[in-house]
Amino acid sequence: MDRSTWHNATITLKLPRDTAPDEAIVALRAAGIPVDEQGCAQAGFLHMRTTQDYRSHVFRWFAHEESGMLASFSAR
């Protein structure tokens, strides 16, 4: 059996469920997550889930190692 690989998110952001889409995009960008006008990640991988109590959305962004994005975030 192959061993699983676990990756920590580069950035994790939790927003209230009723946040407007435009406000969510502004918040994602302010956190340093590169998203386009529709909220799709321009680099890396962006995963969104709803919390168990349905009160919040959790955004987890994983930068690609080869893109050089990790170097800019490790300096923060």
What does this structure look like?
This protein is α+β, with helices and mostly antiparallel strands. It has one domain (11-74). 21% of the residues lie in helices and 25% in strands. The protein contains two helices and three strands, in the order βαββα. It has helices spanning 21-30, 69-74; strands at 11-16, 45-50, 56-62. The protein has a three-stranded antiparallel sheet, with helices on one face. Strand 2 and strand 3 (56-62) form a beta hairpin. It is flat, with a radius of gyration of 14 Å. Residues 70-76 have low confidence and may be disordered.
Sheet-strand content, in percent, reads 25-35%
User: Total strand count, please?
Assistant: 3
Structural class: alpha+beta
Number of domains: 1
Widest sheet: strand ordering: 1-3-2
Strand and helix order: EHEEH
Helix content: 10-25%
Overall geometry: flat
- Please, what is the average pLDDT? 85
Low-confidence stretches: 70-76
CA-CA gap between termini:
38 Å
- Largest sheet composition: 3 strands, antiparallel
Can you count the helices? 2
The Cα radius of gyration reads 14 Å
